[in-house]
Amino acid sequence: MKKIYLCVVVVALGALLAGCGAGAQENAAVESVESEVQKEQAIESVEAYGVVEATDAQSISVDFDARVNKIYVKAGEKITSGDPLVDFDISVLENAIASQEMEIEETAFDIENKDYSVETLALDLENASAELADLEDDLNRKEELYANGVIAEEELDAARVLVDQKKRVVDKMQLNLKSTKAQVKGERRALENKRERLSDELERLEDKHLKANFVNGNQIVSKIENGVVSEVTAKEGEYVNREISVMTIVDLDSRIVRADIAEEFIGRIYVGQKAEVTSQAVPDKTYSGKVVRIWGTSIKKGGETIVPIEIALDDMDDKLFINFNVDVKILLDEARVENDQTSVQEETSTGGVKDTNEISN
Q1: What does DSSP say about strands 227-232 and 78-79: parallel, antiparallel, or unpaired?
Q2: Rounded CA gap, 300 and 281, in Å?
Q3: Residue 6: partners with Cβ closer than 8 Å, 6 or more residues away
Q4: Does the pTM of the predicted model rise above 0.70?
Q5: Burial of 162 (0-12, 13-18, 19+ CB in 10 A)
Q6: Of 136, 192, 240, 356, which has the maximum CB count within 10 A?
Q7: Where are the alpha helices (DSSP H) in the chain?
Q8: Residue 108, helix vs strand vs coil
Q9: Distances (CA, A) of 77 to 149, 231, 282
Q10: pLDDT in tens, 45-97
Q11: pLDDT given at position 31
Q12: Residue 253, Cβ neighbours under 10 Å: how many?
């Protein structure tokens, strides 16, 4: 009986140990599944550092030499549409425009005088040709009178001399008119080219004045509804031009958040993706937005390869200043994450974890 009892105990212990082993395998498989799910949950978002920037900044300047009379704003000052920014003394431009207009008038006068000289020569030639015709008619009459013995040969010879002299005068005047016409034509073309060049220059100067968008005299005002003066680079009394701006103003409605995404995560980011932004300056608020731009190139920054992206916020307010540092969280596609988790669970349930009853059996 003792031997039979011992055998029963051994068999019972073996069954108990086998059951414990199967349970351990099952627990290990479940823990593996949970670990995979936790990994997927851990990458439901990509976090990064960002900076508040503006995409629309305007440099206030003029495309000609001008003296700054008065600056109405200071750096950091908020502005709205119609606010005066700067007033100029544009006498240099005005004098240049007046000088061009005067030179154009003088050139036009010279062209008219060239035409007048040709017209005068042509009229003189016409009169001389008429006188020659009269002398030739007189010579013909005297030849008839001489043939009839009415006049002496000396009188006929005198008439012939007058005709020859007038012919030489007419020939000379014809040559003079021809050369003058050629000369005037060249000079006229040069003067017309000059007038055209002066007109183009005048139009360019007037266009510069027009593009300055002056109001109330020579004043430039803001066209930005919600802006701020980021910097003032000129002083009253100084001369500025297209290469020397007076100030820079920023459109606050163009603010975006630029974030640097590490290269290993950029493949999960796409335009239109939801994002959340927080700032230490506004600790009690989370700003929502979406990705609106992904740079087409990567850059090296702090020894790391990153790709900049831009995020537009749905609820941007005046608490987020330009150049503020912010924390960015890019929310990965929920459907994509759920599919990944489902795939992991299905894979482990069919291949990595066996049914408990199957193990027991």
Answers
A1: antiparallel
A2: 28
A3: none
A4: no
A5: middle
A6: 240
A7: 2-42, 91-147, 153-211, 334-347, 356-360
A8: helix
A9: 114, 9, 21
A10: 899 999 999 999 999 999 999 999 999 999 999 999 999 999 999 999 999 99
A11: 56
A12: 13
